[in-house]
Structure formats: C-alpha cells, structure tokens
Amino acid sequence: MTYKMSGDDLYVYLYGEFDDSVAKTIRENIDMLIDSFVFSRLVIDMREVSFMDSTGIGVLLGRYKKLRSLGRKLSVKNVNFQVDKVFSMCGIYDIVSKL
Amino acid sequence: MNYFKMQLPALDCNEKFARSALAAFCVEAAPTLEEIGDVKTAVSEAVTNVVVHAYDKENPGEIFLEAYLDANEIKIVIKDNGVGIADVEKALEPFYSTKSDDERSGMGFTVMQTFMDKVSVVSKEGEGTTVELVKRFGDKQ
Questions:
Q1: Choosing from B62, B66, B104, B132, which is the catalytic residue?
Q2: CATH number of residue A6's parent domain
Q3: Distance of alpha carbon A11 from alpha carbon A54, whole angstroms
Q4: Any catalytic annotation for residue B104?
C-alpha cells in the first residue's frame, strides 16, 4: 500500500486482491499509519483493488471502530463493481461513506 | 457436462488459486463478468472458511474442491475433514463468528447465499464440513 496526507485527510491506496491472505498485513499497516499521523478522515482508495471478499469487511469494520474511538472518520473511494457489491450487501455504506 | 476435482492444502495462498480455478472453469458457460465475480466471491468465502476454521494453523489439512458444469448451471463442492461446525444454523447468521477476536466479519455464509442461487451446508463435529454452491448463469433477477 501507499499513502499521502492531503489537508486533513489521510489517503491510503490499496493494491491487488483483498482477501484473508493479506488481511493481517493490511490491518497492521493501516493501524501503523493511524498511529503515526494526525488527520480527521481516513480515505481508503481502492482503484487498484481488483477483488475483495468479506475478509475486507472485517478489516474495515475494525479500522472504523478504532477511528471512531479517536473521533475520526472513514471513507472509501474508487471501488469497482465487485467490491461495491460486497460492500452494499454487507451494509457497510450505512457507516462508511463512499466518495 | 464438465467437471473437475482437486485437493489442495488449506493454506491462505490457495484462496486466490481456488478463485482463479473456478473463474477459468466457468468460462465455457459464457457467464457475464458480474456472474464470474459472484462465483469467485462465494468460492473465496467457502475456501477461506476452511483455511480459517477447519484445521489448526500448525497442521493444515486439505480442501477437496469439485465443480460440475452442466449447460448454464454450475455446482461447486467445498469439502474438508476438519473440526466441523457445532451449530450450523448459528454459523449461517449474519455477523456471527467463532473468531470475532480476529476481526472476522461473520458474513461469509451470507455472502455465499447472496451471490449464489443455492447454498447447502452439511457438517459433523470432528469429521468435517461440506458446502455446496449452485448458480445458474443467465438468470435475470
């Protein structure tokens, strides 16, 4: 993953297929970024994510809880059709905004 | 009718391989991109369940993966000889997971039920679990 600060937003860019085999690494890396920067909103840009299953939902919900405890927001961006379908059916857009 | 049968270790690197294998196998039925995505997602959930729950991480067992393609209908069977599911009805509930400490969403079976036309789960504690997924390509919803 790569990242950049833009104003009050921390952008995190994910790549590849987001499944159980990469979940732990993604979780640890995002947590490290959350702990290292001051920001009001984390935006996860998924333009380069070709696939995601419900493992990704678990990781994102965990990040949402952590961010909420810090008074910060979470958004996702550039989700492809398959990722959007998984997000929609799990109801994640009720708590995470899609930019 | 075409089919394949394979057995592979329940390692997380095989989650992606199983998705790719099923996607390639489906091509013969000329599914839409969305339908291929549905099959890949459901298979990913079922195989991940075996990798995460069926066996000890220290001694990963095997996944038995079969697929049958008859005209426009695919049936996929994901079987393991692992610990089995104590309460299948509970396991099928959305957001339920026996490993919630690991930040599991508990949505695996719900995703399978949403993306496939039919899902059946048979399990016996101490013996293993068999999940069957069926999808008809070309069905307008």
A1: B104
A2: 3.30.750.24
A3: 22
A4: yes
Render pLDDT for A25-42 as a digit per residue (tens, 0 to 9): 999 999 999 999 999 999
Three-class secondary structure of residue A74 per DSSP? strand
Q: Do the interacting molecules here have an ipTM over 0.90?
A: yes
Q: Please answer yes or no on whether A90 and B111 come within 8 Å at the CB atom.
A: yes
The predicted-structure confidence for B73-109, as pLDDT tens digits, reads as follows 999 999 999 999 988 888 888 878 877 666 788 889 9
**DSSP 8-state assignment for residue B101:** G
DSSP single-letter state for residue B59: S
Say if residues A19 and A50 touch (Cβ distance below 8 Å).
no
Check B14, B15, B35, B45 and give the catalytic one.
Answer: B45
Task: Please say if B19 is a catalytic residue.
Answer: no
User: What homologous superfamily does CATH list for B2-136?
Assistant: Histidine kinase-like ATPase, C-terminal domain (3.30.565.10)
Distance, in angstroms, between A99 CA and closest chain B CA? 22
